[in-house]
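Q: Here's a chain of 328 amino acids. Please give me its 3D structure as tokens.
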Amino acid sequence: MKIFLTGATGYVGAHLVTRLIKEGHHLHLLVRSPEKNPQLNSKHLTIFEGNILQKEALKKAMIGCDCVFHLAACTSIWLKNDEDYFTINVTGTNNILEIAYELKIKKTVITSTAGVYGPSIDGTVDENTKREIGYFNNYEKSKAISEEHIKRYVVEKNMDVVIVNPTRIYGPFLQGDSFSFTLLIEKYVSGNWKFIPGDGEKVGNYIFIDDVIEGHLQAMNVGKKGESYLLAGVNCTYNEFFNQLKETSNKDYKLFYTPIWVQLIYGYIQLFKAVVFKANPSVVPKWIRRGNYNWEVSSKKMNVMLKVKTTSLDEGMKKTITWLNHSK
């Protein structure tokens, strides 16, 4: 099967490309700078230069393909121009759908985020949860708007499109920037992580990268038209997360609880450096406030409908730490 894929140079995209090649598919990849990505070198790949805002480049790369995985997105913690989130995540995704419709692509799977559903204020979040509070940042907001557009394409043009919504991803990475919780594990194992947010009792959901990839594949294989699927893993508090990390790594470093006001001071310092010195912030206040809510998410629909089993936190951490040890 010929598959068009965006976001191949990112964390999840690189894993998905590797898996699809192993399954014998031929991939058309749209890449902004092919010369900067020499790892994309395989007889199973055809590389096209361009980005998702360029309709002609999209059409050239998508011609002849049976289906589409759209993973490319603006996920930055902070941008000087907030409109970039909407240009890339909304307009770019609309371009994908417009060309897919024109070329009669059989099926499209689009990667969004569990963040569009909001925190678990009134029970565990699932695919039927209605968001109860405003968006914490323009990444979430732009993805929510994009999902509204996607659903209109399904209804008005009868397109077969499926949305997947991953939670906090961790695990080995092949290419692109590692997600925050892989970096957290790496820093803890090396003795360079000292803090637990708040009192450590806020709940988050953590999904291992292999489950995310399986979720994407199953969304393509058996996902129903117009449906969304939360790709969710294990719900646990920060305290439970770090206790598991201590046990799995056999390293018992002392950690310090950090009140929200301390976190916010650090976030504002990072934001100041970003604005004045154009440094890349590790976190900003909007994202800190987001982390001080519970994010308990149900994996039931993924487990039952997509038939994706959840990797335990212990097993996922073991695989991540083993990879970290061998990657040094």
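Q: Can you summarize the key feature?
A: The chain is about 45% helix and 15% strand.
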